[in-house]
Amino acid sequence: MNNATNIMNGMDDETFPHSVAGAMAEAVRAAPLDPMTERFMKSRLMTRVRDLERGDVTSTVRPDQGEWEKFSPRIKMKVLRREADGTSMSYLLKLEPGAFLVPHKHSIDEECVVLEGEVTIGSELVGPGSYHLAPRGLVHQPIRSEHGAILFVRGKEPSWRHTAVKETLRAILR
Questions:
Q1: Across the chain, what does the average pLDDT equal?
Q2: Which pTM value belongs to this model?
């Protein structure tokens, strides 16, 4: 099939005359791309292919969707998204009153936004809308919540066993 036939097959006869479609199709010629444009277009195409392979390009998790899983005695976690390669994830942490996270290290940067309530990170009290960055490799100060809080976190999957064991021992020794 030539260009004119391809174009005309996609046209509605009543809205677009065949003679015009044919003339337009004959005017279209293959044009080589410069190397930079070709690389850019290939990169965009491959990104779209990867997005399609991962599933939906966009994703929405509503408040009543997903499951809150027990992370430790006073903390629940709801996973919003995991990277297929395991490099990072997005999740919510729901801290009950008196909840405590022990000091720990991160293998990648961890970002946190307080959505509800207040938490104390080290000696700093942070509330709703506050953003906190825990850089990779540094020891994260302890996190505690006197009245409860919900946090959005983006980082590496937390080591719940390590945290749960320490928090359980701390609760028993209270």
A1: 81
A2: 0.62
